[in-house]
Amino acid sequence: MPDSERAEYVLQALKATGYDAVVVGDQEFLLGESFFISHFAPYLAEKKTPLCWSLFEPGFEFSTSNSLKTTVLLNLANNSRKSCFRTRKSMQFKKAFVEFAVTGYIDKRAFLFFPEDKSAWFGVKSVKETVSNKNTDCLNILLSHSGEMTDNEIASQFPELDLIIGGHTQTVLEQPEVVGKTLIVQAGGSGRYVGRLDLNLDKQGNIADYRYELVRMTQDIPSHPAVSQIVEEYEQSFFKDKKPRPHIQVYPDSFAVVAAEDCRDCHQAQYDQWAGTMHSKAFNIIEKRMKIFNPDCLSCHTTGFGHKQGFVTVETTPQWENLSCTECHWVKREHISEPQAHPLPVTEQTCKRCHTNKNSPDFDYKKYLLQVKH
Predict the structure, then answer these.
(1) Which residues have C-beta within 8 Å of that of residue 252, sequence separation ≥ 6?
(2) Is 290 left (phi over 0), alpha (psi -120 to 50) or beta?
(3) How many Å apart are CA 295 and CA 300, to the nearest integer?
(4) In CATH, what number is assigned to the domain containing residue 108?
(5) Whether the Cβ atoms of residue 69 and residue 61 lie closer than 8 Å to each other
(6) Of 51, 107, 144, 176, which is most buried, counting CB atoms within 10 Å of its CB?
(7) What is the pLDDT of residues 126-162, one digit of tens each?
(8) Please, what's the largest Cα pairwise distance for the chain?
């Protein structure tokens, strides 16, 4: 969650999904103590969804309008003098004939490169303090934001755990890892997959068999109606003030921003080829999706976004819509008057500024280059 505005909508979507339990990760603390306390606590307290974090802070009770407490499972200790609220590291509940014991855990190594000003207000309790003394009469589940390697270490150290649902390293596990009797699953990151694990239990409540599946989130899967509405409201919010949010720098200011039509005077053949590519129609995509004020999208669907002479809005800088030549061919301003000042060569890294693993997971440099090479 890179900004507080987006975080507001993420939290709304979290409430709408209705999970039984969730564990937060290191990214949820990036906006600082004040945001965490003022936003996470109220959002989760309203909902009967038990949220599994792990923050131990004395003096605060979560409650919901239907008198059910929102359970927050975290293994962090409060070091703050400004705020206090109490959560639990684990919860128990029963569904059908099965008693579940769920614990939330985040390893201190998840905060290894975390800004000190964002983490000074809490401390991380050890895995021994968090996970030990599990009830052997329950199905013991650990929600872990610690990484695949750490999850394996935990499974070895605490064989009474039946299942670890992991995160943090965004590992795509095609099949569960098995340590002793403990199943370890993780479904990658960025919402590309949803993991499904069906457990067959014996009469004693132990796992007798299981079926595991990673479901790829494709366009043919129906959207969650409530979450779709929240996403639409988020996109619409960019239209309220008609101003783009803070610029995201794409390439250095020392390079020129030039419209494709200006390049055509000397490069007609290259211009004609470009006009038939998706680069020349890039802005249409975000226009149809109502994202023309979203900086995450503008950075890669316009020219020069973030520059003094680059794209700002449709009304003020329409000439910079789409991806013109200089978005890929970085060229010094002298090139316009001195053509021998050649642009920098296009490399795979040039393309990967926009075709990241998150934005373009199927990106193949050699294959894609054939579509735009001129």
Answers:
(1) 330
(2) left
(3) 9
(4) 3.60.21.10
(5) yes
(6) 144
(7) 899 888 777 778 899 999 999 999 999 999 999 999 9
(8) 82
Instruction: Quickly tell me which residue has 């803070």 as its tokens.
Output: 246
pLDDT, position 1: 43
167, 199, 216 — which closes off a domain? 216
How many residues are given for the chain? 374
327-369 pLDDT, tens digit each? 999 888 888 788 877 888 889 988 988 898 888 888 999 999 9
271 secondary structure, DSSP code: H
What lies within 8 Å, CB to CB, of 311 at 6+ separation is: 298, 302, 303, 304, 305, 317, 320, 321
Number of domains comprising the chain: 2
Phi first, then psi: what are they for 367, rounded to 5°? Answer: -70, -45
Tell me 28's DSSP state.
G
CATH number at residue 293: 1.10.1130.10
239 inside domain: no
Q: What is the pLDDT of residue 44?
A: 46
Tokens describing residue 285: 């995509």
Query: CA dihedral defined by 330, 333, 334, 338, rounded to 10 degrees?
Result: 70
Q: Is 101 helix (H, G, I), strand (E, B) or coil?
A: strand
Q: Is residue 255 located within the same domain as residue 212?
A: no
DSSP strands (E only) in the chain? 54-56, 75-78, 90-95, 98-106, 122-124, 139-145, 163-166, 177-179, 182-185, 193-201, 207-216
Q: Can you tell me whether residue 260 is helix, strand or coil?
A: helix
- Same-domain pairing of 209 and 262: no
Report the C-alpha gap between 105 and 57 in whole angstroms: 15
The answer to whether 172 and 148 have CB atoms below 8 angstroms apart is no
Choosing from 163, 195, 216, the residue where a domain stops is 216
Q: Are residues 254 and 138 in the same domain?
A: no
Q: Which two tokens stand for residue 168?
A: 């943090």
* Beta-bridge partner residues of 235: none
Q: Encoding tokens for residue 173?
A: 């596990």
Collect all residues with Cβ–Cβ distance below 8 Å to 30 and sequence separation of at least 6: 1, 2, 115, 118
Q: What is the pTM of this model?
A: 0.74
- pLDDT value for 84: 52
What are the DSSP calls for 280-297, one per residue?
GGHHHHHHHTT-TT-HHH
CA distance 123 to 107: 11
**Which H/E stretch holds residue 372?**
helix 365-372
